[in-house]
Amino acid sequence: MGLFFVANERSCYPVDMLRAKKGAESARPPQQLRRNTGTARSSRDTKTLILETALKIASREGIDGLTIGELAKAVGMSKSGLFAHFGGRDQLQLAVLQLALDRFVQIVLRPAFKAPRGEPRIAAVFSNWLAHLNDQSALPGSSVLIGASTEFDDRPGPIRDFIQKAQRDLISNIAKAARMAVEVGHFSEELDVEQFAWSMYAFVLGYHHSKRMLEDPKAELHLKRAFTDLIESARRPRSIAAKSASKTEVSKKKRRM
User: Fold this and answer.
1) Residues 96, 97, 100, 106: is their CA dihedral positive or negative?
2) pTM, to two decimals
3) What residues have CB less than 8 Å from 189, skipping those under 6 apart?
4) CATH code: domain of residue 174
5) Where are the alpha helices (DSSP H) in 87-143?
6) What is the pLDDT of residue 246?
7) What is the pLDDT of residue 36?
């Protein structure tokens, strides 16, 4: 994929262990194999249902507002049944954050990476990101990852560590995408790619806050204008941008006179 930061861990077995496992499974009666497979599938389906429901609750109530009791009631299970799947509230919260992150990769980044390297790919990330934030069916409330960033910004622990790494890696990879745009000639060689990534990330956070907290009806318009200006600025060498800013300042002074 080239860009992004979360790699799915895969179980690794030595060859002898794989052979031993295969031999043990083939020794079981077919009926036992079917029963075990059905049980495993049922357990996975139940866990998926729990996480899907938990993600929507966290979108409305925040990740810290996600409780075992509320979730158990929503999925029609006992608290002990939920504990059997996750072992505790912290593990549940981390699993929900991982699901939110996986969805972000699947919906925002993966399709964007099919676009050509450079400016088209950055534009696709931006467009997909905005559409994802605006999708009420997936996020009936706010972004779980953005909301959790505020909830846990000063609370050390594994949840804050997870969120911090995800956000840092996202910014880092936006910077990498901007660097590619420089390499293919879409952006100026003088571009500060870290500043570009910081600005793009900050604009999206500002939009999220402006839309939800301030209820600004022009939030999306402001975001799109800011992003357009960012792209146009990235295309121009700093010397040209500085001259343009200087001319604007001189023009303002003349009008004041």
Assistant:
1) negative
2) 0.74
3) 182, 237
4) 1.10.357.10
5) 89-104, 110-112, 119-134
6) 55
7) 46
